[in-house]
Amino acid sequence: MKAFTYQRADSAAQAAAAAVKPGAKIIAGGTNLLDLMKLQVETPSNLVDINRLPLDKIEGTPDGGLRIGTLVRNSDLAADPRVRQRYGVLSRALLAGASAQLRNKATTGGNLLQRTRCYYFYDITKPCNKRNPGSGCAALAGFNRIHAILGTSEHCIAGRNQGDSDRGVLSSSRQHSRN
Ligand SMILES: Cc1cc2nc3c(=O)[nH]c(=O)nc-3n(C[C@H](O)[C@H](O)[C@H](O)COP(=O)(O)OP(=O)(O)OC[C@H]3O[C@@H](n4cnc5c(N)ncnc54)[C@H](O)[C@@H]3O)c2cc1C
Ligand code: SF4
Fold first, then answer.
1. Ligand 2 pocket, 146 CB below 6 A?
2. Is residue 128 lining ligand 2, measured as CB closer than 6 Å?
3. How deeply is 4 buried, as exposed, middle or buried, from its count of CB atoms within 10 A (0-12, 13-18, 19+)?
4. pTM of the shown model
5. Residues 17-28: pLDDT tens digits?
6. Among 116, 137, 152, which is best to mutate for testing ligand 2, by the most ligand atoms less than 8 A from CB?
7. Cβ–Cβ < 8 Å for 95, 89
8. How far apart are CA 92 and CA 96, in angstroms?
9. C-alpha distances in angstroms, 136 versus 51, 128, 130, 162?
């Protein structure tokens, strides 16, 4: 792992200001980011810890929906009675992902923003256009049972919603429905 600095944000504004600086990365549960740092796929120079911010609430909205804070842990979201009753697929998808220990740390924001879970993206000895543009795609002829059916290209078959700012939560249900 490469050397980096660490700071704890005391407010959302402070976190946002720190996160836009070159080399900075927000850290929430760390269950994706730390793995990537150990493998040197991600090499941030500063980590901005947002875990003390009051963003862990699940609140009802006037139109009958739910507003889910970015720091709501996957376990807490899956167990929330409103989610279980009204969004059963979401609850089950969350419980199908990872392990209990990971779900206790993993946050909603981190789930949405995690990088792809393609095995070759994490293996720096293998070509991967997403990690190293132009190097090729090891998954095309490799182990690709968890990869996307729709939304692929000749350059990457991981698909958009295996992380990378799309619906990571839903990628959980898809991964498990294909296993
Ligand atoms: C063994 C294992 C199995 C897994 N299985 C599944 C699975 O089956 N299905 C599935 O969907 N996922 C799975 N995951 C992924 C897991 O859901 C994610 O690692 C987790 O949700 C990430 O949340 P986190 O809070 O730990 O994010 P972190 O690791 O802290 O952050 C992930 C990324 O999001 C960014 N980020 C986090 N919060 C914010 C924010 N508020 N604003 C801006 N950026 C932010 C970080 O900068 C980083 O780039 C698995 C992970 C592991 C290790
Ligand atoms: S599918 Fe995408 S993420 Fe996976 S090896 Fe190919 S280019 Fe990389």
1. no
2. yes
3. middle
4. 0.90
5. 999 999 999 999
6. 137
7. no
8. 6
9. 37, 5, 9, 19
Q: Which residues pair with 47 in a beta bridge?
A: 6, 25
CB 40 within 8 A of CB 34: no
Which of 94, 93, 57 is CA-nearest to residue 72?
57
pLDDT tens track for 105-163: 999 999 999 999 999 999 999 999 999 999 999 999 999 988 988 888 999 999 754 44
Two tokens, residue 165: 């700012």
Q: Which ligand is nearest to the CA of 120?
A: 2
Angle, helices 168-178/88-96, rounded to nearest 10 degrees? 70
Q: Judge if the beta carbon of residue 137 lies within 6 A of ligand 2.
A: yes
User: Which of 12-21 are b and which e, b meaning 16 or more Cβ less than 10 Å from the residue's Cβ?
Assistant: eeebeebeee
